Batch of 4 targets.
Target 1
Amino acid sequence: MVSKTKISIFLLVMMIGASACSAAPAVTEESATLAAPVTSVSTEAPVEAEVAGDLVIYSGRSEPLIQPVIDAFKAKYPNVEVLLKAGSNSELANALLEEQANPQADVFITTELFTVQSLAGQGIFQSYLPLGADQLPDEFLGADSMWTGLTRRARVIIYNKDLVSEDELPTSIFDLTDPKWKGQIAAAGSTNGSMQAQIAAMRQLLGEEETEAWLNGLIANEVTFFGGHTDVRKAVGAGEFKLGLVNHYYFHLQQAEGSNVGIIFPDQGEGQIGLLSNATAAAIVNSAPHTAAAQAFLDFLVSADGQKLFAEQNYEYPLLPGVALQADVQPLDGFRLADVNVVQAALDFDATFDLIEKVGLP
Amino acid sequence: MKALSISPRLAIAAGLVALFVAIPLVYIFIRAFGADTESWQRLLQTRIWKLLGNTLLLVVAVTSGTLVTGVSMAWLTERTDLPGRKIFRWMLVMPLAIPAYIGGIVYLALLRPRGGYIPQVLENIFGQSVFTPSPLGFFGAAFILTLFTYPYVYLLSGAAFRSLHASLEEAARTFGRTTFQTLFQVTLPALRPGLAAGALLVALDILAEYGTVALLRYETFSSAIFVQLSGRYDRSAASVLSGILVTLAILILWSELRLQGQARFTQMESNWRPAPLTLLGKWRFPAFLLVMGVISASLIIPVAVLVVWSIQAFLDSQSLTTIFHTGSQGFGSYVWNSLWSSGLAALIAVLFSLPVALLAVRYPNRFSRFISRFCQVGYAIPGVVIALSLVLFVNRTLPFLYATPFVIVIAYVLRHMPQAIRASESALNQLSPSLEEASRTLGRTSLQTLFQVTLPLILPGLLAGGSLVFITSLKELPATLLLRPPGFDTLAVRVWVWAGEGFYLQAAPAALLLVLISALPLSFLLRREKIFR
């Protein structure tokens, strides 16, 4: 009898075993604090009932970063059921490419322009110029209105003021390879769209070799690479690291949580590459199942109400002229910006991925 | 009993199941070996060797850790006069209800260097930062995975300690060996086949593990595959890595199946009597503390933290709103999605396991054994790999199923069917074929016999198999994340997304519920075993 117990326990363990509780990584790009309850923006807006049905959104902006906008949109269009899938830009781009014959998504939102530009070149999107989008700067509209820019963000260095004194602050992203910061820096890893875009931009501005040397310098300097920037800002805020390479709004989000952090807009000196910046964008998928709802959503994103949400809740730079920046956000006009050709960078995106793989960026 | 010829219907049904199982495997190998040589070269030059080293190091460390923890806990609760051992037996198994990634989330929040609760409290008390062990990296991952996988080894060695023939040890003592010499020279070697099999299971588990290593920033094959999938617009690198990972896992699974086969013949049926308990004497208290330590770390602390967070979340109106309403999805829909997808997977897995098990048990020969073994290959295919192959396969061949929750259910069935097959085979093994033969002699057809005699009698065994599939599907993450259609969230997905954004309070109620829902079927399974009654 007892050996039967043994057999049956043996089998039980065998059966339970190897059923790995494996899980997936947080590959979401950008993340932010829990969005504050949606502001009054939506309630003032007239409720539009004529658009109805589902709206499927693939978003490279992480869930907490897009949900407030979706909530405001839903308040305006109560008959639209929004279904969201958030992930990394390239993960969702992969899905869109895979689904060409069998389209699932209506709207794709990315955190940089190279992915939308590259997909537009592959015929993934349909042309649509949202209402009022003609007011956006030209450089943030895709050719043939294949995509529409939403907001702008700058690549900055966040630092912990308790751990770094003013006089030793880095002034360039190249200072991050200085051995004096060894093991003290956090950044986002290779799956993060903003990081990929930074590398693509640097390849264009500086060439393959210098970019490769910079990446190898970061790795040699024992930079810790996270899946996303929320981890980076929290770790710098807590003092786990002295410096972090992030988008500018992560500094504001971390400061809003009460951390003693500072922000550096790097590479402003003579002969330096200038401040790297990028933009988020939205596009409507070719033969999207719910085009009307998708168009209404894009209209809302570039409207003053939508742009205000991005600016107020996430400290981003709205692209629509006349929408105010959140207090404390320094206007981009005051900085020397690096000039990157989006179309060319999108064409070179594959070479960027090869470089990322070659240096073994985590 | 005269040899029966195999029923063609049964063989066809089992063959179809095997075909179903073969899909992801074949697809991955085609993709991996069909990848252009450039992808192979790029990977061989850079990542593969480091990944291989990292992965094997973790596998070896966690396997050794679980062996030491599992065997020592089993010895203490089965062979000594440790106070409270009856309750400890239960508590030492319950960590199986806690997915390792949830344990990882708890320890990360507690111990994260400088940012964690404990380092911060210490800093406030002492006015300066105090060294605390970091849950990150290799050591953290090895520690946390050991905490939540040792129960496999514990269950196995506990049962083995109980059933081991007392006379072996008595003989050793008679020849002048001390208690500890006997333990190391006689008892443990006698347990070796079972322990090795348990160790290999842990090893398979660690190969497939994703959430914990991703969370704790330790890169293994599984995590690298996920990074590849979300990193660039081409899947050949992910396929190459998957091919290597699956090959590695199949090697381990193969040795496990061999050992499992041998282990059956190591039982000693006759003259069994319980071995006398070792009196711990002055070691009673330290031993008690040791067991308490393991239980605290693997069960009490994680559950307590989740309870505290859940209470905090319910007191905080903002968290509460988000928990109950994210977009168009409410908390109820996550729970319902988790329950129905895991439940359906359990049902299908049990149904599919029946022809395979019937064939293997009632008509044992090379062919049926091969089918049975082959259908257990799901053990060796990590969730992320199953998801990758299903995405590609379903979209191309079954587009109407693409982006529906049923693809997730298929992934659960593929990954967890081995549990159902083993449960069904074990139930059938305990049912004498003479009952079925009697039914046939009395004029019932084979189908009637199946439904009127066999199935009712093996039902408890089938339920056990179903419960296992249910528990493991409930906590499955990588396949769910990759395959879920927009708007389809499960408890596991919500825990992962919220915790990934650092919103521990919001994640806690879902995590706690996940643990509680897993604990129920787990206790049902344990109650079937004599020692837990």
Note: The mean pLDDT of chain A is 85.
Target 2
Amino acid sequence: MVKSREGRLLSLQTDRELVLGLIEACHEAIVIHADDLCELDRAIGDGDHGTNMRRGCEAVYLDRERLCSLPLPQAIETIGMTLVMSVGGASGPLYGTLLIEIGRRLGTRENEADFATILGEAVDAVARRGRAHAGDKTLLDVLYPVQTEMVRQSALINIAKRAEVSAQLTADMKAMRGRASFLGDRSIGHVDPGASSCALLTTAICRYLREYRPA
Amino acid sequence: MKGKTANVGIVIVSHSPLVAKGTADMVRQMVGDSVPLSWCGGNPEGGLGTNAAGILAAIEAAWSDHGVAVFVDLGGAETNSEMAIEMLGEPRSGMVAICNSPLVEGAVIAAAEAAGGASLAKVVATAQELSPS
């Protein structure tokens, strides 16, 4: 994905910087907004989404030196497994599945242009894991639009904007999965916490990549 | 008792350690040591939540070569249990089933069935009869 024109040796150096940068950007975004995510979750769930995501991101952050020594595909897969093991809620397996599937697929494909396809397949795996569909008021309602923007090869800033708008749009949806679904119509009017964390992470990743210049 | 028993194992998974342990106590009262039994409750820090690594360890602890039935409370427990089962890898992952049944009633009835030497399919079916489909 980040192969430089100078060849694979240099690209491993690039992977190191990229993985470290992405870990730090995502960790910062979640730590700063953990309380906001808990507040969203208190309205329609069990109130621990921010705490859970922070626990997962802290576990990844603490392991960052080892992770950034791995090639990008393995780093992404390992981060996914770390989230599964540390988050402590359904979002662990959901975000974990996303990253594990992306990492495994990245490792077997050469072409950078495949990333939108890889993301699409990984998002489908998340949907199967959660037995959820678009419009169910979940993180999928951010992941699918983000994937659509990637297929269109949209600019990073537009991908981030689409993620943020998509998260806000979950307020109009009635929750069909997870604890928020127990509230039925009363879930309408609240932004989904999972969609919100997904938009925060997407924005953090896009912002980092805009500033990132491979050596 | 790892793998040695002829009876199906039972695993209890709850968001609450107290619920998980309490349910396991009720199962134990019913069937004694005749069924491999383990539980996992709470998140990795011990608070309310779920824990894929802990569920994986519980499945290992209750392992039976005749299969393991897993009982879960709310959604996250089910999602994390599915993840833990996948992490077991083939072919063992195919010998573990999550029961769609009430946690306490399902686990106790399933354990009674398992104590009689029933197959995993029969144990799961008996527990799931409790759920309106």
Note: Chain A touches chain B through 20 residues (CB under 8 Å).
Target 3
Amino acid sequence: MYEIIEGFLEAARLIVTLDADVMAIALRSILISLTATVLGTVIAVPLGAAIYFGAFPGRRGLINLIQTLYALPTVVVGLLIFLLISRVGPFGFVRLLFTPTAMVIAQMVLILPIMTGLTISALSGVDPVLRDALRSLGATRLQFFANVMKEARFAILAAVAVGFGRAISEVGAAILVGGNIMASSFASSTRVLTTAISLETSMGNISESIALGIILLIIALGVNLVITAIQHR
Amino acid sequence: MIELEGVRKEFDGKSVLAGVIGRIEEGEIFAVIGPSGSGKSTLLRLIDLLDTPTGGEIRIKGIDIHAERERSLTIRRMMGMVFQKPAVFNTTVSENIAVGLRFRGADRGKIREKVEEALDMVGLTGYGERRARTLSGGEMQRVALARAMVIEPEILLLDEPTANLDPVSVATIEDLVVRINRDLGTTIVFSTHDMYQGQRLAHRIGVLMKGGFAQVGTPREVFTLPATREVARFVGIENIVDGVVVGENGASVVDAGGVRVRAGRLPGPGEEVSLCIRSEDLRIAPADAARAHPGKNALPGTVTAVVPRGPFSRVAVDCGVPLSSVLTWKRVDDLDLREGSRVVVSFSPESVHAVRRD
């Protein structure tokens, strides 16, 4: 019990004094997950829109598949990317294993289904009367698509925030393809908040773990506040 | 202007419109009235190219609008539509109204000018920068009307625009509809299940029932000379008496289960008819005070109910056939009418409108 209290006090000190190691890990976490989210958005939002507006056989089934993949286990994504980029894998020559880039790719793959699915939901959520109104006001096909997207913009932003939240909080893929490396340079290190918590806890450094955990919680809380604010628009 | 030629629409094999035939003239206000689920919205959506008919043709200025795929955008841009549910885009009021103009590539100055004009027209001057979602239902519907009007459509389609609105908003929208038609000459087609709204606004009314127009005519025609028993019931004629035409002393009268009723104009003997008599046209007098009017209908009967209705009372009388009239409270008191009172119900043959039964 005493150790835990001491851990919290030490954690508070690490955060308040902006401990260099802790801050570097936090910053790296944010940068990697943010990059994954931006790339994911660039793919997922147009993809979601194409599936929503498109009329093709198997559309319903595809949407079901995407929704099933919301629950994609992070370690499975990690394993998949690991197999693809490991030395013996088809993309081994690119030498991406245990780099931040590999983590970005893994997290992006992880959040693609949920962001695509939530984009489709966001577009489905647009009042059918407004869709009729757009057509009735003489929208061309392109104007129609653009305006339905515009109407769903806050719900789409929420989808993006959910994606970021899932990316920054996952540990399985990050540890498998990143390797939790603390190298001399910031850019070649792959230690992020979740992998660091995992390591520090296993090494008995409770206070570091708690400090990192609190920071992760603060980020998650921030993301949640953003989502809530968006949804109340 | 708009010709409906056997318009049919089915949804999942269920027929909603079964061959609507009609014609809407340029510059008129045409009301489509009918009970819920009679296909009023469907008909308007077909005209606005929002749905495709299962069969038949809709022609606007002679063009079969559903056959012209390449020109469908041009055709749709001749029209504006307001929907039953007030719905606005999640942006400012001004931006809402500007949507149609933006689609048509209007420049900023023109958009600003038109939007201001439209705001003024619908009585929302100064509301331009407000978020449209914060408005009341009635205000939203006025925004929807302004949004449809800034594009200066030749045809304005209104799908039950005042259903679910408060009475003040209803009056405002109705006033706007009349003004738009009068000042701009816009052809207006609106649907409503409120027959009195149809009467207030429309030059002509089409009564949509069982997938087709049961009657098309001026409000006066529809309300006083309903074409069928169903139309009579829908337009609020409370006394509908079924009978058979028979000869009596060389004239035709209607035998309704032993009760003989004289009517202005009747088809030949043997025809089954429904007699439509408006409550307002019935006189009720105490049995002992009633004087015989030659040529008038005077049916003795017993009061079965006196039911208050606003400032009036509805008095139901069993004369062998059930009839009811509307009297002021004072009149009811003066005549001392109550359940069981013996009375005579009289009405002129001219106030009886006979329709053939199929």
Note: The two ends of chain B are 33 Å apart (CA to CA).
Target 4
Amino acid sequence: MLLIHCPYCEDTLPELEFTYAGEAHIARPADPSAFSDEEWRDFLFIRTNARGPHYERWRHIGCGRFFNALRDTVSDRFLMTYKAGEARPTLTQEAAE
Amino acid sequence: MTNQKHQFDASPVLVEDMAPVLRLSLRVKPAHRASLGQALGLDLPTRVGARVAAGGTEALCLGPDEWLITAPEGTDLTTPARAVYADAPHSLVDISDREVTLRLSGPSVLDLLAACCPRDVAAIPVGSAARTVFDSATVVLWRDGPTDFRMDIWRSFAPHVRALLAQVQEEFVAGL
């Protein structure tokens, strides 16, 4: 079974305890009323759809927390997980291999 | 609620309904954890899964800012918590009736839980607890002894969980 490391529980647990929650690091508009239709469309629907390393949100049922993960969408390998609110880590060569 | 004991003949696991207890869900920011714990008479643990007990009251850390508190019915914890509300804002919700608790004990209890829990149940330390899934139903597993567990199940999922437990027990009896 696919194992995922929860940065809050500091434990590596089976995938069934986790839920995928979409792409990470999508900032909400600071002034929503000033948004044009095109900007709303991009904010709501347009995603990276990455082939390879993908920054995404996951939720752990155990601690009830959302966190971010960097997962390779080709191999389904989790390259790293980190707490929500932390800056987007750069993909190092070691992690990518 | 009746406290009926299900004694399955030749069954390696004893499944019992436990008496109702007071259950409270506490959400408080880490900065106010200590002062609220002082008001409740508990040193609220910070590690997810850790438990602390004082008197008849027990607190389990479910998440970085979430605790589950159990106490005998009739215990008043809301009054001391309300007294410190201005200094330590928090949410303290009575969820006593949301869940029912089963006690699972017996030599094969780990096999029984492993049949439906994806988590490595044997790796849960004795004296701690974990919120996990039991065939997609969210449950809280308290490990009181090497082969002694309590399981809090949301009331509406309880028939499903009980049916599965009975089915797995039948398989044990049949030697599968």
Note: The longest strand of chain B covers residues 137-145.
